[in-house]
Amino acid sequence: VAPARALARRRCRARRAAALAVAAPEAFEVPVRLNTTPHSRSTRQLFYADVVASFAAAVADGVPRGRLWCEWTELNTETDVYRVGTLLELVRCMATEVATAQGRNVRVVVQGSMGRGVFQGLPLQLSGVRRLLDMMEWDEVDGVELVAGDVPRVRIGALDADELLPDDHVVIVIAPQNIKGAAIMPALEALVERAEAQGTQVFLLNDKLADIPSAEGLMGVRGRAERREYAASFEEIYHFRLVYNKPLFHPIYGALRRAHDHDWQVYKRFNVTKRTEEYRVIKTFPQKPTREELSDAILRYKPPPKE
């Protein structure tokens, strides 16, 4: 079993290295047939490489607070095809790249149960994630897994400022979000404050920090502007989401993407033939486009006349 597992890891590293080698933030080709799930391995690797390229660049640039929003079909929690394995594979690729290529110590954290008494619980998206993280297999360096050894290069823990170590260089927070009756913001603020005090970079992956008002008076109008301002203090280093005509998720009209230190790109999906399609960049924005600007760019686009 061990030789087969080692061979599988080498093949995975080779595929990831090949994908990263061709990852160009300004020339990303959106995979096709994204409404076909589960996605193929090659489709996932393309997305992983695109995200990792921006994440690694942001870490190298010393971004103190960053956020990444990744919402292709398998990572859209509003659908019934959400796949938590895709999220964890993405986290593993991000942590592995920074730990091996840049020599950083990476801490991967996920929030625990919140609330009190019978109202204690977790968001459905994060249910079982911590256990799966502990069960995952990681790459090896000098025959030792990244999460093992006397000084692990990748550490897994809770969203708790007290768990942060002085030699943690990068923290990845998986999908921090509020629930009805409990707010994640105090714990997140404490973690970020301690991290910044010791020079640790913090990155949020698919965060949902919008208020969820409750009967107990939590996350009400008072203090909402400050909470939104704090959430906006995280620099958006990567963004990808598909564009639909909500509330429907079919057909896909296009996509919105931004890589680190690049403009926002609007893609439109074109049917080339009855069975083939492609995505083309039709417009770029220096700032994140509003919903109206995004809709106008896609729906009112007219292709140039053929010569």
TrEMBL record:
Residues 42-295 form the DUF1995 domain. It comes from the Eukaryota. InterPro entries: Chloroplast_ADK, DUF1995. This is DUF1995 domain-containing protein.
